[in-house]
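User: Can you help me understand a structure? I only have the sequence.
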Amino acid sequence: MNSPPLRLFTFAAPSRFYQLMGWSIPWFWALTAALTAAGLYVGFFVAPVDATQGNAYRIIFVHVPASWMSMVLYLVMAFWAGIGWAFNARMASMLARAIAPTGALFTFLALWTGALWGKPTWGAWWVWDARITTELILLFLYLGYIALVNAIDDVRRADQAGALLALVGSINVPIIYFSVKWWNTLHQGASISITKAPSMAHTMLLGMLLMALAFWAYSFAVVFTRARAVVIERESRTAWVAELLQRRMPS
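Assistant: Let's start by predicting it. Here is the structure, written out as tokens:
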């Protein structure tokens, strides 16, 4: 007897997605540990010393992937928030809420490591550079979304208001990306581009990509863990959550 085909919206139900997240979280934590160890080893011990910046450049192995994640996670958050708003999809709205704190963390990490890089490179912890300023605006958008959805008691209205803010704020992401081309900034141009070969040593590129993958794995692990908590909180009155909590209670 053939098994039934996997439908597109099989995991749209919070109960099914909760189970999927629970199964996948340990694997993502294992990937995070392995990729972080490999990325830091390549970046700090294998990659050569930069000819102009010396060892100070090694902060890019954390700074650049964190910057990538700050922008990508915002777009993912805005996407799921928009799906939740347009189709009244509960799980999509819950995912958007779970993504926001992790996106804010990576944005803060990008700004902080940028300051550590800027001091020896530019001679200042902070400058009102176009990319830095728009990245700071991104942090405020994350924090604004978190504050907004938590300030409104009605969950549905909170999801709708948060989705509107997230979708409008997504215009800031391409501004961040193209800021080095549109304005005269202190930031160097992109070292990695789809249209041309990377302008860095292969070991430098390898270390950066390993750290980017590590941050992706970390994001999945943390977002899924947080999403499971949101699911339990918002679905607390459903039968499947009551049954789940009953099984967890000590006999």
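Now, to help you interpret it: The chain has a mean pLDDT of 87. Residues 152 and 158 are 5 Å apart (CA to CA). Let me know which part you'd like to focus on.
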